[in-house]
Structures are given as structure tokens and as C-alpha cells.
Backbone:
């Protein structure tokens, strides 16, 4: 694959991009770095403020205490809903594409306002007040958006938990953030299958007196057990409420939401975003990076359980008065043509998904494209993991028929919004590269000793100055926030990603350099999976690594050392048990693809596991394992290689 390939941006005949030329991008980029206060104040003026800020940006020297738009007051829900009513009360705000193909439900801005106000009143009636945390465990249904915005309206802090997490994971999050109210659904529907959400919540809150209220959305006709005094049907509660609800005006630095994300150590961290800077950044980046225009139909196929759904299904698009598509199903239900069917049915102009989904569709074959024209499309986006150039080109050539701009957008839960991406119609594209930094963003590469690298180079990706969408802390663990992001390279925010910069200054993200793996665009900590495994009585030690996976980007490979009482157990059965164990503790998304029962792990004499060797073996790269003589037990490596050979041979036969 030719990494020098440059694809010129496409101009769409009837329109000039928001940023009209590449020279203008460069000029504005300079300005955003030289005069960030001036630049961001102008962007913030696009929102509606109850009270203007007195200081655009302030931070202490260490950058672990940053604030944007200090003194300003606003409300995210007001900005996403109420302020549009005069101009676009009858415009569709949300198109819900239901699991069942061809079933759509349109919700106007006025209807959105009424639904959100009712849910907000229900929350208030159940005792939720400004600053309280609310756990949201819902499928991709309109009530998910209503609930997020209802929280924002009354100043409550939502924490959305992805439906692929288990009850234990829900419980951990409830405990960590101190939520007293949970919103869920009787069931979810996805790809024709039912997801027992209420049942999972019941298990999560069992014996937890802290949770006084569970609100249940009716998605199917299932009647789950309802505990009197604790469980309430949301529709019944809403019927009793008025469709107006007063707004809680929030300080710009008041929390908007907490979203849990995996790191290289310990349990997932509750990344906290605040109101003003986040909303300015999400809305402005949504407008510019997707070249969003009034009247566009915008479809982001992510799940609201992830940051992409927060910033680019809900907050960014709605703050911009867009029509945003909420997709309940999967890209392969009923077949691999589902996205394109929706694109044609709804005349989607902007489409945003993850490389793992595109790879699955490449694999399914081009025939699924034939039934749609996709002529309405203008911008195609990707996010979540590195996109290999072949996949990029398929997206560009086949899906976009060579006439759409492809934006490969690099960012993180912690960054709140997109930090590195091309601007459509403006930035020349290189397949596989996220290209150039967004306004106000200063990426830099450093070597392992923290020395900044100039020009073309490869190293650890860091960021120098704060930007408005930056996470402010980890809920209840500010010290951990500092430790995780600001201590490895003092004075810089460390992303955890490796990256290369080419001779044109383009950035090529190479993937995580820490013990975080990216499985089908889902971020998981190897330490989390290891602790789930050792929680099983059969396992005394576990080491988890990622390995290259054709569709998922990375797969999960677990090495386990068994308690001697279990050595006789049937290997196949044991693997099933351990997979179930991980599903139980974390959720289906963390299920290992392969489990290898190991006699020992390659460790240095000081007891440190040589993960590099484990990664190489898991990838089937047995040659060049490097110097293993420093290991405590060098022979272990050969045994592992043999076991891996056997395991792969068996897998090929299956
Ligand atoms: C938005 C999101 C963040 C991690 C990040 C990277 C990887 C995300 C890209 C990417 C290469 C991209 N948030 N990542 N986008 N890698 N190219 N365009 O995904 O917190 O869940 O994950 O995802 O490793 O650090 S996240």
C-alpha cells in the first residue's frame, strides 16, 4: 500500500465549506494557537449564554486544573433544544431508525422539548437535584436522548453505561459515582435479539440501598418484575407531568456528564466533562469537521454508551440544530446493506462510523452496495481505531463512489471532541492518516525520555495546550487524573497513543502504547480482564494481550496459569468457563478470543511480565522473540510457543 497516496479534497458544486480554503485553515489554525482566548470566545458566541464569561481560559501551571469560560452560565439542554424552537420547532431533531428495517420515527424539536421536559420533571419528582448523578442503561431509543438532555436540563450529571456491560460493571459504576437513580428499559432490541436490560439492573442494584429509584422505559411488551416503591414505568410517570420544565442555569465549569473508560491500570475511570467548554467544542467541531450545514441529515452510527454518541449523536448535532439519526440496530441486520438502506431512505448527507464496521462490510462483499445509490452522501467519517488504507479506500471508492470526502477523526473520551482530522473539501487526504490538527490543538511527539521530536518522526503522542473540550478530572480521583495523563511527561497531556508524523506534518496514529487494547473500537484495559480472570477460583495468574484481528482490529488473547487442583479439567470446558467469567464480570465485549493455559509466564528476574513476548506469541510471530536470556525461566517461552501452535491448529480445524 502506497502511503504517499494523496487524494485531493472534493468541492461540492453548490457550496463552499465553512472553512473555504486550505490557506484559510492554516491562517485560522495559527490564530487559534496565537490568540486562543480570542479564537474560542468567537466560537462560544455561537451558543446561547444566560450570563457571559469573564475569563476565556485559566489554568494552573501544571494543567491539571483548567477552566474555560469562567464566570459564564448556560444550560446544555437549553442550547440543544429550547433555543431552536423559534426557528425550527417543526424541523425534525431526531430520526429514530428502529431495529426493524424500514421503521423510522421522526421527532421534531418541539416534540423533543416536550419529551425532555416531562422526563426532567419525573427526575425532579424522584428527588434528583443539581449535581446528583444518574446512571443511564438504555438501548438506542429516543428515551436515551430525552434522559441525557433531561439530566442536563436540571443540572444532574448523567453517566451512560453501554448495554454491552454486565450487571457487575453497572454496579461498579453506580458505586463509584454514587448514583441513587437508574434509568433503564424492560428490554432492548438489537439485530432481532432481545437484551434483558432490566434484569441486569435488578442484579446490579440487588442489596444496594443507595439506589432508591429505577425508571423503566417500555420498549417491548415484556413485563419484568417491578419492585414497588423502587421501580417505575417511565411512560406512566411522564403522563402525570407537564411538558414544561424550568432550566437550571449552570456554571460553565459545572459537570455535564461522567463517562467511564478503561485505562492501563485498575478499574475504569469516570472521565468528567463540564458544561461550557465541552459544548462549545462538540458543536464547533461537529460543524467544521463534518462540514455540517443547515438542513443536512446527519447519521452517526456509534452507540450513545461511548463518547462518540455523546458528542456526535447528541450534544454537537443538537446544539447545531441538526437532524440526527439514532440507530437502534447493527450494520449487518438483516444483512450487510443496512447502513446504505438507511442512507437512501433518509437521504443522509453525512455518515460517521468505525473502521471495524467498515471492515465487516468489506468482508461481506460489494453486492450489498448494489441496492442503494448513496447519492445523498457528501462526508464520510471514521473514528475509534486506526483505519488501514485498504479499508479507507473501499469506504472512499465504493461507499462514497469517489465523490465524498473521508474524514478520519482521531480523539478520545478524555478529549471530548475531535482533535486530529482533515476538513472536508479543504484538507488533502491520505488514506490511513488522521491528517492535521483541529483548531486550538497542538500535538507533539516525544521519545520515551520526554524529548520532543522535530519534523518527520515517530513517538508518543502528547498535547501541549488545553482545549475547551478537555476532560477536567476523573470523578472522585483527581490525583489519578494527574497521574494518568500529566505525570509521564510533565507539562504535557499524554494520550497513551503512539504516532508517526510524516514529511508533510501529517499524523498517523499507530495505536496504544500502554496496556489498553482496542477491540472493535471498544477500549478495554488488559488489567481489567486479568482481574476478571483471576477472580475465578481456577486461575492463579493471568496475562492478557491484544493480537491483530482481521475485523475487530485487535482480538483478546489471555494466558492463564491454573491452580494445581484444576489441571485435570478438560481444556475446552475450562475455556468456556473462563470466557463466561469475563462476560459476567465485565460484559460480552470483553470476552477473550483465545485462552491459553500456560505453565508459567515470561518474567524478568525482578518479576515483571515481558508483555512484548506475549504479544508476539499471540500474533504467531515466533521468530525474533529477542533476547530471552534475562528471563527468570527462559524455557517457558518455548513451551508457550508450542502451546500456541497447538491452539492455532485446533482453531483452524474448528
Ligand atoms: C473517540 C474514541 C480512544 C482511543 C485513542 C486511539 C483510538 C480513536 C482513532 C484512533 C486511530 C483514529 N474514544 N482511536 N480514533 N486511532 N485513528 N481516528 O474512540 O476513548 O473510546 O478511544 O481510540 O487509540 O486513544 S475512546
Residues:
Amino acid at each position: 500500500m502506497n502511503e504517499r497516496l494523496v487524494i485531493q479534497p472534493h468541492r461540492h458544486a453548490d457550496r463552499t465549506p465553512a472553512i473555504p480554503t486550505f490557506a484559510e485553515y492554516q491562517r485560522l489554525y495559527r490564530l487559534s494557537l496565537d490568540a486562543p482566548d480570542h479564537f474560542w470566545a468567537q466560537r462560544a458566541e455561537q451558543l446561547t449564554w444566560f450570563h457571559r464569561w469573564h475569563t476565556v481560559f485559566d489554568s494552573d501551571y501544571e494543567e491539571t486544573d483548567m477552566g474555560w469560560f469562567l464566570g459564564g452560565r448556560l444550560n446544555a439542554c437549553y442550547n440543544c433544544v429550547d433555543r431552536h424552537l423559534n426557528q425550527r420547532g417543526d424541523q425534525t431533531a431526531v430520526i429514530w431508525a428502529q431495529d426493524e428495517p424500514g421503521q423510522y420515527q421522526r421527532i421534531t424539536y418541539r416534540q423533543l422539548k416536550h419529551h425532555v421536559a416531562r422526563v426532567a420533571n419525573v427526575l425532579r419528582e424522584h428527588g434528583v437535584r443539581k449535581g446528583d448523578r444518574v446512571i443511564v442503561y438504555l438501548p438506542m431509543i429516543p428515551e436515551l436522548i430525552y434522559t441525557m438532555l433531561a439530566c442536563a436540563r436540571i443540572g444532574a450529571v448523567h453517566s451512560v453505561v453501554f448495554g454491552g456491560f454486565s450487571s457487575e460493571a453497572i454496579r461498579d459504576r453506580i458505586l463509584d459515582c454514587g448514583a441513587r437513580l437508574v434509568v433503564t428499559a424492560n428490554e432492548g432490541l438489537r439485530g432481532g435479539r432481545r437484551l434483558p436490560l432490566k434484569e441486569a439492573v435488578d442484579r446490579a442494584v440487588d442489596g444496594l440501598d443507595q439506589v432508591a429509584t429505577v425508571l423503566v422505559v417500555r420498549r417491548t411488551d415484556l413485563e419484568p418484575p417491578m419492585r414497588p416503591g423502587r421501580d417505575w414505568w417511565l411512560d406512566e410517570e411522564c403522563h402525570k407531568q407537564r411538558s414544561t420544565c424550568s432550566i437550571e442555569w449552570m456554571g460553565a465549569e459545572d459537570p455535564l456528564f461522567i463517562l467511564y473508560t478503561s485505562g492501563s491500570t485498575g478499574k475504569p475511570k469516570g472521565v468528567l466533562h463540564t458544561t461550557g467548554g465541552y459544548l462549545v467544542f462538540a458543536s464547533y467541531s461537529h460543524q467544521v469537521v463534518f462540514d455540517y450545514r443547515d438542513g443536512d441529515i446527519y447519521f452517526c452510527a456509534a452507540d450513545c454508551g461511548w463518547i462518540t454518541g455523546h458528542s456526535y449523536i447528541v450534544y454537537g448535532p443538537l446544539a447545531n440544530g441538526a437532524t440526527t439519526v439514532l440507530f437502534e440496530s447493527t450494520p449487518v441486520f438483516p444483512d450487510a446493506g443496512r447502513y446504505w438502506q438507511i442512507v437512501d431512505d433518509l437521504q443522509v448527507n453525512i455518515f460517521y462510523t468505525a473502521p471495524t464496521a467498515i471492515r465487516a462490510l468489506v468482508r461481506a462483499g460489494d453486492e450489498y452496495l448494489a441496492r442503494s445509490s448513496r447519492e445523498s452522501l457528501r462526508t464520510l467519517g471514521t473514528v475509534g481505531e486506526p483505519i488501514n488504507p485498504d479499508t479507507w479506500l473501499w469506504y472512499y471508492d465504493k461507499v462514497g463512489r469517489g465523490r465524498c470526502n473521508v474524514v478520519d477523526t482521531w480523539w478520545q473520551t478524555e478529549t471530548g471532541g475531535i482533535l486530529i482530522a482533515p476538513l472536508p473539501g479543504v484538507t488533502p487526504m491520505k488514506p490511513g492518516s488522521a491528517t492535521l490538527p483541529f483548531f486550538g490543538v497542538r500535538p507533539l511527539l516525544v521519545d520515551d525520555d520526554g524529548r520532543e521530536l522535530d519534523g518527520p518522526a515517530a513517538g508518543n503522542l502528547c498535547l501541549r495546550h488545553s482545549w475547551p473540550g478537555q476532560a477536567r478530572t476523573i470523578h472522585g480521583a483527581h490525583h489519578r487524573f494527574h497521574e494518568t495523563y500529566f505525570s509521564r511527561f510533565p507539562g504535557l497531556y499524554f494520550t497513551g497513543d503512539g504516532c508517526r508524523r510524516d514529511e508533510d506534518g501529517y499524523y498517523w496514529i499507530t495505536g496504544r502504547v500502554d496496556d489498553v487494547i482496542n477491540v472493535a473500537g471498544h477500549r478495554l484495559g488488559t488489567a481489567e480482564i486479568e482481574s476478571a480472570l483471576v477472580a475465578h477460583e481456577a486461575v492463579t495468574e493471568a496475562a492478557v494481550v491484544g493480537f491483530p484481528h482481521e475485523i475487530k482490529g485487535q482480538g483478546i488473547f489471555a494466558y492463564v496459569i491454573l491452580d494445581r487442583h484444576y489441571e485435570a479439567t478438560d481444556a475446552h470446558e475450562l475455556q468456556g468457563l473462563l470466557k463466561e467469567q469475563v462476560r459476567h464480570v465485565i460484559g460480552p465485549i470483553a470476552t477473550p478470543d483465545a485462552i491459553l493455559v500456560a505453565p508459567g509466564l515470561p518474567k524478568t528476574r525482578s518479576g515483571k511480565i515481558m508483555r512484548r513476548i506475549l504479544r508476539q506469541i499471540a500474533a504467531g510471530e515466533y521468530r525474533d522473540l529477542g533476547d530471552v536470556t534475562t528471563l527468570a525461566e527462559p524455557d517457558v517461552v518455548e513451551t508457550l510457543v508450542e502451546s500456541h501452535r497447538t491452539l492455532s491448529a485446533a482453531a483452524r480445524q474448528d
Observations:
- The chain has 19 helices and 31 strands.
